[in-house]
Design a protein that fits this description.
two-stranded antiparallel sheet, binds adenosine monophosphate, binds magnesium ion
Length: 488
């Protein structure tokens, strides 16, 4: 088998990681393996050898060339700086080249204690492993930059949480695991050159085009701001709430990472929070763009002395980039929202039209996902579902008239506009109660059928399939507010 790993992070920045080894799972079972991803990653030979997969992804066998490491990072958690986080329950096995010749990290999550475990056991319960698998793969299908899920293992031992739960290991693939918190760690270290080494490594790996410009570190910062602004705009456009946007959970590459308490919003309410630990709503849906800038300001602080010898000049240059985040984000958001309501041309009043729709959605407590699918239906004559959602609100009828008028400027038939809308507005998202149902069956009843069915449906989120009506809707019976927990 030609699976050869590299250890470029370890070789380049050894001060930011510690060698560590997985605790072999006692009786591993491979619950799900992502064969299409394995192909893409040049791992097709592995995909054919299930027993090898089990050995490797349960931490029982080390791949050729791999020196597993736990990476060090710091981070602002809910606004408070923690200088010593790091991979407490994850191990970077190494990096390898995918079919496009790009370097990818391969990481086990939940494979036992590392030097950064502090008081934790380094393990993961199976539920959060399957949750991350399902939601990250769904995000990928929806075209949102994300880490990927290669395998989910049931370890065969229980972990102690509030109750004893079956343990799991997730194999995660990412374009890297370098976080804003990684820069915060390097910046605080006593080694003056560490931040430069990390920035150079990150530039080379993620934004090589910034290496040759006049001020590479400033250009690097602008590139990270651009990727993260685009990412958060994408989240907002599908009603995704990350839930724990701490600086250690924001990647330099702009991929969504750490699917702990994340969830999709059902009824449109900008102040929605699902995470049980987010008492003040810091990471609510509407706060995500503000937190984006807050987090990137923490990154900017770490780059000051790389950007310019004169501190005031460096701060001025970095501030100019920071001030661009909001307009850059708004541009991405507007472009995504335009396509959600079928607009391909750009007009001055589009922002107002979209904002009016959102406020009507809020007033009428309309399901975020169903709204856009019902709008396209209304365009081709089927007004029943949109009328239901907006409870025959006259203000909404007025909005429809404005929307129709605006669409007439597009010079495209309503049928074509409706089909283009259905290509960007998913019908099937990981509905919270369906996710819970799938996890419950898998974790407590050894039954992967609901998980596999849901996972299959989420692979084609835009195409309506007869008989799957229950997967389209939010949970209409639940009286309690949906709550999520960090993936420990
Ligand atoms: P997270 O909430 O996943 O972003 O994790 C925050 C920090 O807690 C990271 O440094 C994790 O590695 C660490 N951590 C979370 N769960 C565990 C665990 N079960 N054992 C050890 N460390 C953990
Ligand atoms: Mg994390």
């Amino acid at each position: 088998m030609k699976l050869k790993l590299q250890n470029t992070f370890l070789e380049s920045i050894s001060e930011m990681c510690k060698k560590s080894y997985a605790t072999p799972a006692p009786a591993p079972e491979l619950l799900i393996f992502n064969s299409p991803l394995a192909e893409e990653l040049n791992l097709s030979s592995l995909a054919k050898d299930q027993s090898k997969c089990i050995e490797i992804f349960s931490g029982r066998e080390t791949i050729q060339g791999s020196q597993p490491i736990a990476q060090a990072y710091a981070g602002h958690q809910f606004g408070h700086f923690n200088p010593a986080l790091g991979d407490g329950r994850a191990l970077l096995l190494g990096e390898f080249l995918n079919t496009n010749g790009e370097l990818r990290d391969i990481q086990l999550k939940g494979s036992g204690p590392t030097p950064f475990s502090r008081r934790g056991d380094g393990k993961s319960a199976l539920g959060p492993v399957l949750r991350e698998y399902l939601i990250s793969e769904s995000m990928f299908v929806l075209g949102i930059p994300t880490t990927r899920a290669l395998a989910a293992i049931k370890t065969g031992e229980n972990v102690q949480r509030e109750q004893e739960l079956p343990g799991g290991i997730m194999t995660r693939v990412a374009s890297s695991h370098i976080r804003v918190g990684s820069f915060e760690y390097a910046y605080k270290s006593k080694n003056q050159s560490l931040i430069k080494d990390l920035a150079d490594y990150s530039i080379n790996r993620h934004f090589p085009e910034t290496a040759d410009v006049e001020n590479p570190y400033l250009a690097f910062f602008a590139a990270v701001c651009n990727e993260q602004a685009s990412l958060v705009a994408n989240w907002m456009s599908i009603g995704f709430i990350h839930g724990v946007m701490n600086t250690d959970n924001m990647t330099i590459s702009g991929e969504t990472i750490d699917y702990g308490p994340c969830a999709f919003m059902d009824i449109y309410n900008p102040s929605t929070v699902f995470s049980s630990i987010d008492k003040n709503g810091r990471y609510s849906y509407e706060n995500q763009p503000k937190i984006l800038t807050w987090n990137l300001t923490r990154l900017a602080e770490t780059l000051i002395h790389l950007v310019h010898d004169d501190q005031n000049e460096a701060i001025k240059l970095l501030t100019e980039v920071l001030q661009l985040i909001k307009p850059v984000y708004t541009n991405y958001w507007l472009s995504l929202m335009r396509s959600k309501i079928g607009l391909s041309k750009e007009e001055q009043d589009d922002m107002q039209l979209i904002s009016q729709l959102l406020s009507l959605m809020e007033i009428n407590k309309v399901d975020f996902t169903l709204c856009f699918r019902s709008l396209s239906k209304a365009l081709v004559g089927d007004k029943k579902s949109i009328k239901n959602l907006f409870k025959n609100d006259i203000a909404f009828d007025n909005w429809m008239a404005l929307w129709k008028e605006r669409l007439s400027h597009e010079s495209i038939s309503d049928e074509k506009i409706a089909s283009s809308m259905d290509l960007v507005n998913p019908l099937y998202i990981p509905r919270n109660h369906k996710v819970e149902e799938a996890l419950e069956a898998a974790v407590f009843h050894n039954n992967m059928k609901p998980f596999n069915k849901l996972h299959g449906i989420l692979k084609n989120p835009y195409q309506e399939v007869k008989g799957l009506h229950e997967y389209e809707k939010p949970d209409e019976n639940s009286k309690e507010k949906y709550k999520t927990y960090c993936g420990t």
